[in-house]
Write a structure and sequence with these properties.
The chain is an all-alpha fold. The protein contains twelve helices and three strands, in the order αβααααααααβαβαα. Helix 8 packs antiparallel against helix 9 (about 175-200) and helix 9 packs antiparallel against helix 11 (about 240-330). Keywords: Membrane, Transmembrane, Transmembrane helix.
Length: about 350
Amino acid sequence: MTKIIEAVVILAVATQIIPPHHAPPIIRPVAASGILGDLASTLNERLFPPEDYINYDVETKTLSIVEISEMRARDIKRRLARTHGYGADELARMIDKKDLINTLSFEEHKVYQQEVERRKWRRFKTTVIYTCVAVLVVMFWPLLRHAWEVAHVNFVVYTDRRKHEISRCREFHSFKGYFGIFLLFIIDMLTFWLSTSVLLSWVMTSKYFFPTPNIPIRPVELLTPKGHDAGAFGKYGINIGPMIISWFFRFLSGRVEGMIGTAMSDAFQNQRRKEKEEMKRRRKEERAKEKEERRAAKKDAKGIAKEIARQRDSVDVKKDYDEKLRKFDDIPAESMERNTNNNAFMGAHGFSTSNFDDID
């Protein structure tokens, strides 16, 4: 959209003809608020010139025959002189008051008729203009609709691009990128203001137009030999002031976009470096955690091995005990009785004995 606007501006400015030896005539700005108000006022003045202005208070400004009859002769002469432009000689020839009354009544009626005719003409002119506008809108409605769609698409593309740039700045935390986008927004607004001012300067003037310098180039004077008269065409030239400002805006836009690109690249590199450092730190923590887990696993394995060995020793002791019991159960009854008697004898003589002495 910006390139299209710039192309239109260059085309419009390239064909803009201005007087060479002095600045363009300064036209008093209309009393309106903003460029749109000035445009509406200018169109109203072009379509309805001041001579077609309708004075809606004409009935109160013109006097009737009854009101004129009640006036004094001196007041009638004063009104004829001030309002209708009668001279002293003409008023001096009107001696009778009836002549003064008839003359003023005729002049007031003539003013009233002029206002009525002007009102009819303006109403007819308004009707014709509205009819032509309606016909043109109906005829060129597809073109207008297409132009509106193109403008809407360009606006959506512009806003989406700016939103994407802002989201990237927010993603990379680049304050320099935010500042660059703000500068781009200001430059785009100034470019749009310049383009609108140049296009509307063909049909109107306004104090709200973009202030452009007057730098005329006169091709005829450049082609005319030195010391010769360039003629009527030598008095005109091309104002390249808007071209220079437009080129300056494009230059600034390119530099700001380059600054934004550099800032985004630096922010991306910083983010990549931070991500790598964070990844290294996480890997280091994971390795330390794995090492601690392996150490704890080894410690648990040693404890489990000791527990298994202890349980194995207890099982072996139990097996020995069971085997001894089994051997005791296999001893014959006679041998057990003999051993019992021996034990009793040994106990009687002071010897200690046990039923399991022969087991070992």
